[in-house]
Design a protein that fits this description.
This protein is α/β, with parallel strands linked by helices. It has a single domain, classed as 3-Layer(aba) Sandwich (Rossmann fold). Helix content is 30%, strand content 26%. The protein has helices at 6-16, 35-59, 80-85, 97-109, 145-157, 217-225; strands at residues 68-72, 89-94, 115-119, 131-136, 159-173, 185-191, 194-200, 233-239, 242-250. The protein has a seven-stranded mixed beta sheet. The protein has a two-stranded antiparallel sheet with strand order 6-7.
Length: 253
């Protein structure tokens, strides 16, 4: 099956559901949010980053105080803005120009001036610095692993020695989501517990759909082992039936 153009999906989502597509709760639907909705949206990011930084200081680096930080898949700035408040400089990367426009607008609204925004590609060609803190959360799950694995490695390489990486992927989903696979092949066969597609078909989902992909944790753990010191913290996540893992570690090589 031809690989879906998820980049095009996200530019459409940025124009139609920029907040809901980042955090899928009905209160965040629509192109713009009420004052209360926007406050709730960004408060969720503040709480997440405060908890994450506290966790890093408790279990990995007690003296963790990043100067340069990177947030991949920054969207409208839910995590980038609080990261900037904890950093001297924060760089946000996103594939959708409209997301970057809204992120810049939100930063101005909240009086945050120490951010830089870069449009993404699969090689992160616009990211040339090394960072004390590199983050991606509930982002790679929307990118096919053939592309996302390359991005995962580039994010690792963008973490400076002694810096902290926090990288999140999904690896499985509840069986109820199997119906979304029905367009993947015209025929299939079962081999033990595996389902094998025989004749693939095109992905006919409407452009602007949110897609979810599962990553091979064995492969990603091998990637992490190339760079990480001890400990490597792996936090389990679950979002509406999608199981994930968040790798948090200090880069030592």
């Amino acid at each position: 099956m031809a690989q879906r153009n998820t980049d095009k999906d996200w530019e459409i989502l940025a124009q139609t559901e920029p907040y809901w597509s980042v955090l899928s709760s009905d209160e965040f639907r629509g192109q713009s949010l009420s004052t209360q909705g926007k406050t709730s949206f960004f408060l969720s990011g503040d709480e997440y980053i405060s908890n994450l930084f506290g966790f890093i200081r408790k279990y990995i680096r007690p003296d963790f105080r990043p100067q340069n930080s990177l947030d991949f898949g920054c969207g409208v700035g839910r995590l980038l803005l609080p990261i900037a408040q904890h950093s001297e400089r924060a760089v946000g990367v996103d594939i959708a120009p409209e997301m970057l426009r809204l992120c810049r607008q939100n930063a101005k609204e909240y009086g945050i001036e120490n951010i830089e925004l870069i449009q993404s590609d699969d090689t992160l060609s616009g990211v040339t610095d090394k960072f004390d803190f590199v983050n991606t959360y509930i982002v790679l799950q929307h990118i096919p692993p053939e592309r996302g694995g390359q991005i995962f490695r580039r994010l690792q390489e963008s973490t400076k020695l002694g810096g902290i990486a926090s990288l999140h992927v999904t690896y499985a989903k509840e069986r109820r989501f199997f119906r979304h696979e029905e367009g993947a092949a015209r025929y299939y066969r079962r081999e033990g517990s595996r389902i094998i597609d025989l004749i693939e078909s095109s992905d006919h989902r409407q452009t602007g759909s949110i897609t979810m992909y599962d990553y091979d944790l064995n492969l990603l753990m091998a990637y992490v082992s190339e760079h990480a010191g001890h400990p490597v913290v792996v936090l389990p996540t679950t979002h509406d039936g999608h199981l994930g893992a968040q790798f948090i570690y200090e880069r030592v090589r």
